[in-house]
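dumping this here so i dont lose it
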């Protein structure tokens, strides 16, 4: 019972058989070839019609910052998932992709007039070797983004016309042409260009600076070449490759200039701080120098005594220390004002002011580093990096303020102690004569101012040398070059691959859908039932009669039934006088023709054969023979006729027929009656072969009652006619209700007989 259920599930299975699909694809190989060829032709047209797009790039080396903020900042960035050293790189990427830098580069380049030539309706960019150049004389309100066609008329004259029709002007080279609220002049560099390209239309378009910045910035791509290095790749993808090369080179040039400009600004701030100090000291130096010269001239005193020299030496040393301490105090005051009032801008390093305090220098460097990272992190309260950096900046400012307060207190104490020492030395001068004491005071002030002035001059010279040695924080390794432009579109290899894929995929899908949606059986679908033997394959023959085998026994059609007869011998060899039932899933499959011709080939073999017309509802067998149709199975089963009376001889030897008789009102009941079983046993005793033409199984149940009496059940399947579901249902029901042999007859198969060297008649012919 389980075995029958398994077989039934096989018959009812509605899946996709890969082998069946494979056979369909192989059978329709020409469809694949055709679509692939068409796809390749379209791909070639696509490649020819597409304006090439190129990628140009340049690489820039970013120098690592020499002064880092310390381990805490590195740990902070690593905790946020950023490798050490990547902060500066990310900042430089942000600067390179900024609209301000793009605007600076475009401000130097003359890109606000874009040139094209028309080819097949497309605008092809034109950059180098321009035959003309448009110069804007005044005004900025030109029609932006509107293509203006330039047509050369000869004799240095031309015509301008816009697509929207607002501009239609005829002028000559050098004329002032009013367009919009501005005016332009067109200069010609090469009139031969128009002679060489008579069918090409030259076009130019005005672009606004804002639109150019937006367009280039959107196409600009900056990325790090590796996570461990500090090399950036700057690239552009576009159709005007020469213009993109010029832009990239100008962008890197402006990027370098910006880096150097920032360093020079920092140096200038330091130099300005020194010069402000020099302005005050120089005035005091001039005054004291004049006082010293006047005193010496008036009192005729040129030099101090040895004691006075010692005193002034000590005082000069102390005054120099005092000046240094006051310079530190001035820096501390400026730094405190910066922290308390949140002043923006770069902080001067303590070392540049002569303050050599490692703790202070480290804190100032860390604060400057964190502020730089905060500026580059982007705005928004939801930005976790910005929030963490803001907290770090606040904490670092508090640490710096605490350190600064301590240094300021120490500075005040140092100044007070220094002043006390100066006062003690000055008290020693009271023992000197009055004139020498006065000279001592004047010379002391002069020497102090002179030494302080000299110190500031040295600091200024150092800063100026540092400024002169400044270099950008980056270096262009590989500038953009037209020779190394990489074509990214159209990509012939990718386009042909897509064409190959679509050329194969489209017929695959169409054939698959056709197979999936087609409810009719095809030869390939029979592979699903390969566990059921096929005893016969009947070829398609035009204009045949049902008794074709008897009329044309030498035809290919007749030979197919002889092959079927041979195969049936292996199935029925264990049966004496076998009963062979022929049925189908639905009407029109050819079961009646198959039954008639199968009985015919047995009769031609000399076997005593009877053809039973058991399709009681729609009998067709008897129409092909000259027999009495008023008596038959129906009259026998109701007891009106004996079996000998209903068996009728035909005009063909060894072939008898039992007709259906009059159509009964209860054919199913008659087929299921015990008289029907007795009827078949009577025929088995009288004939060597009993061929039964029964009703279609898929529509009515008559045949289900007959299969128990049959030794072999043949189901006729007509290609492109039988419905798949009906066939599955038929085979399932037959396999469930009988344990007898079940086989298939494939009808209406297209066979190329010429391949095998056969003609319409069975026999060898010359090919």
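and the seq i came up w/
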């Amino acid at each position: 019972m389980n075995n029958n259920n398994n077989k039934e599930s096989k018959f009812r299975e509605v899946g996709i058989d890969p082998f069946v699909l494979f056979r369909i694809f192989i059978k329709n190989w020409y469809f694949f070839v055709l679509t692939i060829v068409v796809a390749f032709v379209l791909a070639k047209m696509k490649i020819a019609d597409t304006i090439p797009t190129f990628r140009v790039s340049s690489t820039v080396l970013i120098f690592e910052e020499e002064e880092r903020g310390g381990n805490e900042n590195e740990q902070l960035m690593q905790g946020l998932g950023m490798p050490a050293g990547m902060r500066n790189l990310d900042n430089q990427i942000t600067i390179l992709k900024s609209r301000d830098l793009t605007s600076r580069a475009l401000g130097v380049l003359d890109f606000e007039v874009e040139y094209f030539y028309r080819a097949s309706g497309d605008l092809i960019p034109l950059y180098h070797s321009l035959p003309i150049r448009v110069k804007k004389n005044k005004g900025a309100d030109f029609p932006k983004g509107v293509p203006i066609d330039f047509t050369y008329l000869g004799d240095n004259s031309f015509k301008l016309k816009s697509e929207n029709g607002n501009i239609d002007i005829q002028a000559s080279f050098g004329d002032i042409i009013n367009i919009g609220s501005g005016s332009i002049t067109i200069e010609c560099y090469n009139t031969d260009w128009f002679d060489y390209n008579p069918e090409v239309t030259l076009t130019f378009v005005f672009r606004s600076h804002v639109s150019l910045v937006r367009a280039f910035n959107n196409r600009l791509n900056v990325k790090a070449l590796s996570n461990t290095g500090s090399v950036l790749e700057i690239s552009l993808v576009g159709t005007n490759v020469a213009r993109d090369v010029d832009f990239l080179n100008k962008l890197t040039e402006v990027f370098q200039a910006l880096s150097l400009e920032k360093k020079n600004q920092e140096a200038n701030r330091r130099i300005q701080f020194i010069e402000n100090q020099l302005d005050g000291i120089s005035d005091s130096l001039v005054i004291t120098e004049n006082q010293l010269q006047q005193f010496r001239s008036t009192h005729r005193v040129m030099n101090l005594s040895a004691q006075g020299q010692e005193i002034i030496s000590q005082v000069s040393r102390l005054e120099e220390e005092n000046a240094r301490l006051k310079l530190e105090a001035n820096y501390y005051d400026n730094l405190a004002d910066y922290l308390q009032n949140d002043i923006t801008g770069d902080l001067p390093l303590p070392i540049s002011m002569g303050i050599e305090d490692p703790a202070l220098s480290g804190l100032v460097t860390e604060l400057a580093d964190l502020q730089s990272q905060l500026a580059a992190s982007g705005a928004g309260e939801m930005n976790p990096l910005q929030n963490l950096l803001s907290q770090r900046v606040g904490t670092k400012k508090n640490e710096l303020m605490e350190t600064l307060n301590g240094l300021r207190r120490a500075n005040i104490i140092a100044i007070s102690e220094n002043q006390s020492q100066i006062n003690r030395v000055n008290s020693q001068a009271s023992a000197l004569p009055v004139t020498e004491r006065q000279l001592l005071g004047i010379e002391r002030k002069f020497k102090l101012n002179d030494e302080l002035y000299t110190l500031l001059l040295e600091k200024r010279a150092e800063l100026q040398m540092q400024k002169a040695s400044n270099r950008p924080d980056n270096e262009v390794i590989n500038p953009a070059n037209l020779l190394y432009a990489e074509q990214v579109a159209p990509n012939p290899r990718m386009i042909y691959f897509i064409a190959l894929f679509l050329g194969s995929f489209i017929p695959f899908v169409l054939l698959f859908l056709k197979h999936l949606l087609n409810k009719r059986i095809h030869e390939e679908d029979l592979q699903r039932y390969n566990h059921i033997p096929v005893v016969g394959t009947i070829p398609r023959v035009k204009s045949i009669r049902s008794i074709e085998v008897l009329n044309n026994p030498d035809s290919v059609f007749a030979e197919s039934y002889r092959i079927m007869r041979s195969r049936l011998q292996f199935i029925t060899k264990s049966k004496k006088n076998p009963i062979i039932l022929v049925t189908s899933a639905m009407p029109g499959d050819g079961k009646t023709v198959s039954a008639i011709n199968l009985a015919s080939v047995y009769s031609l073999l000399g076997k005593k054969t009877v053809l039973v017309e058991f399709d009681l509802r729609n009998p067709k067998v008897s129409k092909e023979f000259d027999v009495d149709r008023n008596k038959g199975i129906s009259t026998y089963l109701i007891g009106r006729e004996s079996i000998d009376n209903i068996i009728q001889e035909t005009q063909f030897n060894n072939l008898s027929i039992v007709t259906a008789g009059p159509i009964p009102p209860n054919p199913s009941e008659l087929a299921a009656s015990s008289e029907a079983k007795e009827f078949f046993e009577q025929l088995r005793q009288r004939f060597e072969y009993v061929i039964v033409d029964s009703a279609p199984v898929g529509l009515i149940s008559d045949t289900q009652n007959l299969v128990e009496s049959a030794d072999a059940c043949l189901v006729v399947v007509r290609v492109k006619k039988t419905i798949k579901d009906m066939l599955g249902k038929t085979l399932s029901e037959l396999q469930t209700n009988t344990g007898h042999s079940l086989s298939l007859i494939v009808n209406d198969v297209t066979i190329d007989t010429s391949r095998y060297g056969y003609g319409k008649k069975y026999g060898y012919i010359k090919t």
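The two ends are 54 Å apart (CA to CA).
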